[in-house]
Design a protein that fits this description.
The chain is of the alpha+beta class. It is built from 38 helices and 48 strands.
Length: 1294
Amino acid sequence: MLLSFLREKLRLTGTKYGCGGGGCGACTVMVSRYQPATKTIIHYAVNACLLPICQLHGAAVTTVEGIGSTKTRIHPVQERIAKAHGSQCGFCTPGMVMSMYALLRNKPQPSMDDITQALAGNLCRCTGYRPIVDGCRTFCQANCCQTNGGGDCCLDEKPQLFNKDEFLPLDPTQELIFPPELILMAESSNLKTLTFYGERTSWVSPTSLDELVQLKSSNPKAPLVMGNTNVGPDIKFKGVLHPLIISPTRVVELFDVTHTAQGVWVGAGCNLSEVQSLLEKLAPQFPKEKTELFRALIRQLRNLGSQQIRNVASLGGNIMSAYPNSDLNPVLAAGNCKVSVVSNGRREVHLNQDFFVSFGKTVLKPEEIIVSVFIPFTREGEFVGALRQAPRKEAAFATVTTGMRVFFSERSRVVQEVSIYYGGMGPTTVSAAKTCAAIVSKPWDDETLSRAYDVLLDELDLPPSAPGGKVEFRRSLTLSLLFKFNLEVLQKLREMNVIKDELPERIRPLPRDIQLSLQEFQHVSKDQSAHDPVGRPIMHRSAISQATGEAVYCDDIPKTDGELFMTVVTSARAHAKITLDVSEALRLPGVVDVITAKDIPGKNVRTEFGYDEELLAESQVESVSCVGQMICAVVADTRVHAKRGAAAVKISYEDLPDPVFTAEDAIEKSSFFEPRRVIWRGNVTEAFKTVDQLHEGEIRLAGQEHFYMETQSMLVIPVGEETEFKVYASSQWPTLTQEAIAETLNIPSNRVTCHVKRIGGGFGGKVTKTPLLASVTAVAAQKTSRPVRFVLERGDDMLITGARHPVLGRYKVGFMKDGRIVAADIQYYSNAGHTIDESLMIVEKILLHMDNAYNIPNLHGRGAACRTNLPSNTSFRGFGVPQGIMIMENMINDVAVLLGRPADEIREINMYKGPSVTHYKMEFSPENMLRCWNECKVKSDFSNRRKAVDQFNQQNRWKKRGMAILPIKYGIAFAEGQFNQGGALVHIYKDGSVLVTHGGTEMGQGIHTKIQQVASRELHIPTSKIYISETSTNTVPNTCPTAASFGTDANGMAVKNACMTLYQRLEPIRQKDPKGSWESWIDAAYFEKISLSATGYHGGPDLYMDWDKMEGQPYAYFTYGTCCCEVELDCLTGDYRTVRTDLMVDIGRSVNPSVDIGQIEGAFMQGLGLYTLEELKFSPFGLLYTRGPSQYKIPAVCDTPLRFNVYLLPDSDNPHAIYSSKGIGEPIVFLGSSVFFAIKDAVAAARSDSGLVGPFSLDSPATPERACLACSSPFTKKIPVSKPGSFKPWALNI
């Protein structure tokens, strides 16, 4: 693939490996080709991970390094994304840059729609997308609210995060030219067949249709590869081997476009972007009634895959892949399209119910080739609809998709022809032929459609255990999508004056235009020195390097001599005894060794809280306890050989009985990690007797994959003497990595040095998991005496490393008629997985935050970590708090519904007020929490918008709006006091430059940037003189994990301590030469033998929690915030859009507003994903289905709130942290639940229309499936529900 060629052969490591399947955009590059026919050059963005190098003959490839660097000049795209604060961890940034760059090469002044389309295929887990979009927005001709008809600018006289007037202008004349030799090559008619030979596969690229036909006839099983978006993933993820691949990209007949009086023949080789562009060009040239099918296809093409996928995937390939949930095939089939195929002769084949035979199979013979596709014009009175529903609005496979066509008798509502096809309702694209028969020759009215719904329900039946699950939802979608088409058709008949009836509601698409947002923060004091950077919105110190691809991540480190690559072999069973046979793997070419538990010289187990966790499962001794548990590791000379070797390892299993998967299983079998925690205040039992009303409920919260863009990566190098090892790892806790390797190898810690330059996202997933993986890598390095690199593929990372803990919450609440909650009893069951990891501490943090912002006098909490046969779950941003508080807020929502009062009123009534004490007897002042609440209500115009939402809901039946406002009180620092330490080492060199090292790791949260600001203030020098290279255990020992939103608090104070020591040492020099320069002072200090190196240390607060007494001081202080969200929900499909979000956050005095606002936005979007979008699906046997971005959807650009306002609470101080700031990395994740509760509010409005009132169940995440079914529309009510226990579900409800 192009990606491995760029990274390994050319050492162009700016292009990143994110997923390997074209789903994340981290590997985006630009391909340019010369078109001899038109003498033009086309530029398009592609995923390098899917693009075979053989396919690039005659093309120019531009990578992020090619458009600009710090050594030459940076490109305006790189500059604007960096200076607009659109790069945090930076791993996704080169891909973002290249997607935008490719757009600008084609359209130097794009629209906002162009930008969001271009970025739709690029995922970011850090920023929340707003700053990326704002940086790209500056290329638009119109990018201010004043151009939209506004008078005064919304940004007047407010401090800005960046100044767009300082940006380099975009000058298209200065771009790289297309290589002239490639133009000459393309124009020469001397085309030759190209053949490439690999280790196991040959690749042939013919030049004529005759040659292609001959090749295919001789090799009917050889796949044709155009965009490699189908064959490529099969080879990579399913291990499919094709001895021969035919690539017809140079066969010109496959790209011909022929216009006829009946329609247009489009070459099957045309990529989907070309097809979309062609149809968009043709549609305005003909009367509207002739282009119904064209416009339907355009609608589907906009949402089919990403721009990068559409730029290479071919029309013919899309048809021939015959995917059951194809977006195009139902529309092509409904539209009476046909294909021209060739083998020994030519024939035309209609795309109809007979064309798609079974999963991935069509009626065509293996040797037949689609040459072109006929897309007909439509007739007057003919309407075509194309509708889809997908887990995410863009770049996601459809759950259900449909193409529908109806043709009416002249000037009548009587149906002459009708054609309805669905995708996602079986193993193929299916025709609803019986439903069509029930409609044809009848008038298009409610009676006919009502009968059609019943026929459709019988015709498209799905068994309850159908692959893909969501059976009830998928069946309801078939009805609701037909109903939507009905509304479209009625509207068009009305416009043609065929009918004059009063129409039902016209359903318009959900709003999608991203608007300019506000980021409000305080100016620094006028008295502050202009050279003092603290409090100013300074760009992330590595942002430019990240945008140019020069920033070095673990896997970017150049290969060392003799380096080997490692792949792990994992269990395929959840609970079984194993026997291992590695003999076949050892015989394969390139395989050097297989590492098993027997090779570990030291400890093979880690003991936490009295429970053991194995590094590698011991064959014939132990059993495996989850799918994905590491059994052994294969070490080989290349990644490919290591992977092949891993596939050759044979494991025999003897299944053990009764695996435990769900919290309910664990409760039934009493499978828990002890101790279980309990905390209470007051007397809940007695209080329940005095209340006006009692209510019991429960809510289930699913887990969440970290999906850091850089997968777990490490490189272990044996130094060669005295058992010394250098370790380069993507780790949030270098010290634990060092200690774990030392224990595993049975050597002292002083022989292991762990280096962390930067991490491409961590979110808690690289705290305890990385040391385990690094330990296995170290065993391989020690055994082979060679450097070993280990980089997990995305699917393996998701399978092995666990996720956020799923939690089942059950509650009983007692309350008064005036809204006061008097007592609450809550039980929390977290699914810990098969080892304890940090699960016990997470349960404790859940219980410590169970009160959130509310003073409930009688409160009882019980927490248990369930021991199950799933991969071990681990820490994740928020550390249990997003799950725990969610249960409290859901309970309060239920109380509000039962009392018939707005939820915000119930929240306000029960909030802490005045000097307060938590349920664990910690005193605090809620003043700033209440200020955040009140200010957010004002800033969001809550009361007026609430009225507008109610009015909208009265006027709309099938679309509803919802609003929610929620508070957060989040405890900062580790309750385990020893983890609050910080260390630093600061060197001043003779030239005056300063090198700072500290114990925190940079993972996008901007800790190095803030530390640089601290050192600048304390040493009174500009940040340009200060450099931070890496975090390493040989400079700062015994560091604590960079976690708990405490990294800057601890390490910033340590750096401050070291810098103050140095500055005081220089005092005599300054007194002697008060007007001297910094450099002259340092020079003089050296000659006067003053030490220019100092360590810094900060012990941190002495925090503790006594669980026996149920009291303590587990937190240094609280970070407060409030979020108001408004959503618009499509009740027929469950799709929603976050219309507006307003966040008011108290973070004391921000050290760096741009970094802190970035953290707030990123955390909010991660919370939005947790509560509304992201679903981990496990098979009934414990296998994780969702192992990559094609199955697991994190928020994308399309999920960003259309208005995303962030306000930092002014005039706030915090005496407990550096420069009066507050930790902010984690707290805001929970406020993403405001979107969940806004959806729930919209669902309640929909249920009200159906006569349903009172509390209802809506588990998290509130996916389109759950939201749609909860709306309880007439269509969902038609679907029979299968009785639980009567079938084996496709996926477990974890």
